[in-house]
Description:
- The structure holds two protein chains of two kinds.
- Chain A has helices spanning 2-20, 79-85, 87-93; strands spanning 32-37, 42-44, 49-57, 62-71, 100-105, 112-120, 128-138, 143-152.
- Chain A is an alpha+beta fold.
- Chain A has a single domain, classed as Immunoglobulin-like (Sandwich), CATH 2.60.40.2550.
- In chain A, a hairpin with a 4-residue loop joins strand 7 and strand 8 (143-152).
- Chain B has a 22-stranded antiparallel β-barrel. In chain B, strands 8-13-14-11-12 form a five-stranded mixed beta sheet. A four-stranded antiparallel beta sheet of chain B has the order 3-2-5-6, with no helix packed on it.
Amino acid sequence: MKKLKYILPAILALGLFAACSDDDDVDTTAPVIEIISPEDHEEFHPGETIHLHAIITDDTELASWKIDIHYNSDGHTHSQVITLKHGDHDHHHGEKEWHVHKDGVIEGNVKTYELKLELEIPDDAKHGEYHLGVFAVDKAGNQAQKFIEIEVEDDDHHDDHHHDH
Amino acid sequence: MRILVTILFILLSFSVFSQERYHVAGLVLDENNMPVPGSYVQTENEQTVTDNNGRFVFNQITAGHTQLSVSFMGYKTFDTLLIVNGHKHLRINLTPDNIHLSEVEVRGNNMQTAPGLSRETIFAEQLHRQFNGTLVRSLERQSGFNTMDIGAAASKPVIRGMGFNRVVVVNNGLKQEGQQWGADHGLEIDPFLSEQVEIIKGAASLEHGSDAIGGILKISNRRPPDEGISGSFHLLGKSVNETVGGSLFLQGRHNRLFFKSRLTLMEYGDYRIPTDSIVYLTRNIPIHNRRLKNSAGHDYNLFFQAGYLGEFWRTSITASRVWQKSGFFPGAHGIPDLRRVKDDGNYRNIELPHQNVEHISMTSNTTIHTPHSTIMLDLGVQNNHRQEWAEFHTHFGNQPPPQTNPDLELDFNLITYSANGRWNFRFTPNHAITTGIQSQWQKNETDGYAFLLPEYKRSANGAFIKYDYEPNRRWKFNGGIRYDLISLETKGYFDPILQQYMLNQGRSAETAAFYATRAIETDRKFNNYSWLVGATWNAGQNIKLSLNLGESFRAPTAIELGANGVHHGSFRHELGDPHLSPERGFFADVTMNYKTYRRQISVSPYVYHFSNYIFLRPTGEWSYLPHTGQIFRFSESEAVMSGVEISYFEELHPGWEIEINAEWLYNQQIAQTNNAAYPLPFSPPANGFIELTRLFRYSTNDTRVRLSLNSRVAASQNRIARNEKTTPGYILFGSAISVPFRISGLNSELNLTGHNLLNKRYYNHISFYRNLEIPEPGRNIQLLLKIEF
């Protein structure tokens, strides 16, 4: 019994001690990303330039950013299966899925960062829907991301292989 | 008078002090030859209570005649005149006293004769009354127990805030595989099946192998039926997803042979959530008609057991198959896309993406009882086969769809062989020793156009020894140690398509090779020990205190060691570390029990210390994989965890009952150079459950009508790990009506239950869908009809 008498308060005290210990270094607030341009669902043409402008803010300190532009192959009703069936078709146009990955370090003890990038769409970019994602992490590793969709339109010839339109 | 008799006996025993003494050991069994723990055994000058295996020992019986009586509530008292002329080994069969048998059974089994960990036992009758879709959800009201839900039809257990591989599920003596794998992988158990479920809290690794750092969920279906054929039928209807289901149970016994069988069928539609839109990857996704598209599914489960009851032994063979097909919400599978969440006018179809989950198991259990020993041998083989189907898609333009099954995204096929042997030997009334060995061997194969889990081979072998010492009726002590040898071999996986993709993106050959190594080849051996010591003190008539200290470990999994790639759904690039060490946790807990006939209060504070808790650490390094943020690496960190569980039950007034369960827990990592004192991920917030029940008889019928109102409360969770979301608190209301009645002479019961009556939109912080901002299911009115025959 004597032992229990001491161990029980010790366990409770330990729990309380843990509960009261210092949380100062702990940062779980993720940065906030605002994409000023382009607008969601904005349309572009091959050869044009996307003026990306995003404002990234954090409550403590920003660490780095990344952008990712990717062809939305999922969105199309039959994705690759159809693409394969129409394989010749695609090759005929000589189009390529456009993909961009860029990242950078945010130097200094900064809470707000303006990300401005000029992104040129290649002439042979496959037309269709693309996802544009902006990512940011703060010094603690809290990550934020923001996605918009952009369209790369083929203005020369609106042909038949846009199944969804 | 009694005092006088006792004094007389004491005097008598003094007078015969010099005579010869013998030892009398006995085994108390019920009408089914099942041991009766907690029965009261009395000789003329000694008394004791049978242990968990129904055994008692008297070491100092004087030669001559002695009156021996064994009594247990619900059974006729056994009386005999014993002629002691040598060491005696007895086998005593109690005969049921037919009145109120079922009620007493529960009480009898509830008696904890062995000291030990904080535990709660729930029986079939109660489980059926609290039925809530899955077994794990039906247990949700227990303090210290939480559910990690994956929609409305799958959930996994969380004990003391620990889930996945830190909780072990033991089904009929053997560790069940499955739920501890992916975040979207539920526990594969027929929700109608279990006869008895025990939740053991605390590092209980001794008998069931490493990994049980958080606790054990122990399920058993081993009670032999009564003579003749009997059974029951359940009919289920749920409003939240228009479930229609039924479960037929048939059992029979002829003398020593018995069988049990169950068939469960459930079909359900898309479930309702109280919201019009969700936010997934920063996009607003509409929820048409407030129903989560493609969350429909069906469960088809089979169970069969055949057994034989010997004089001193019993054996059974159990086969079961759990099969579930259920859809995934297409709006949160892969990249958000509004076109795929449009209402298709059908709430019961299962389209792509969906999963097929199958668990087949075959188990043999044998138990031998003697007045001194209990020997158990469990053998089993089980197969987990889980497939995820989704329309072929790839992030790498150069990947062609597979020739066969082009839409099979992931396939996980695990086979596990297990063998357990245990021997418990009680040599005196005060000392018992238990020793055992466990062996498990498993092999996993994978398939599909996506890659998640490496193929691996794993073997785990362990042995333990445990000692129980009971110097008197007030004190009990126990201590044990276990040693495990685990070997894990994971196969590497190199993806040439991804390598080419990376090269096409202009990455260096080195980078391309790193990314293309989707699984790192590893060959690891983990040898480690666990220990547990405990003391229980019956401080008074009604108060019991126990203290446990122990240390347990968990070997890292194939994913933690070897993964390298995006875990779909979470969109995280997860990177394993082949050099992780086994996770070690030290724990201490105290349980205080106060129990009178009308009132039960239990309080258990606990504390854990992990020398190296394994978690996913954000690295701040960007992944080059498309649509992915930073790389998360499996890392180790020192961590502490503590909490307290409180449960309270009282019969306030004849016919009025109240139940309150509450839990508070706290955890954090210990700050290190590269890691601050962050809270651990997947921590349930402080939560509680309160239920008020009115019981009454509407006629001369023996069983009572139950009318309950309950409420579940959770505090907001603001202590989060990095890249988790804070979750607001909530208050939910529920109700239950249970009406017993008879249909053409058959005992029947109607249970009408309401969950989330106010249709509150809330999030379960630890659910799979929390991160996708999908709220928990809305209001559910459930009807469960039981007919016994």
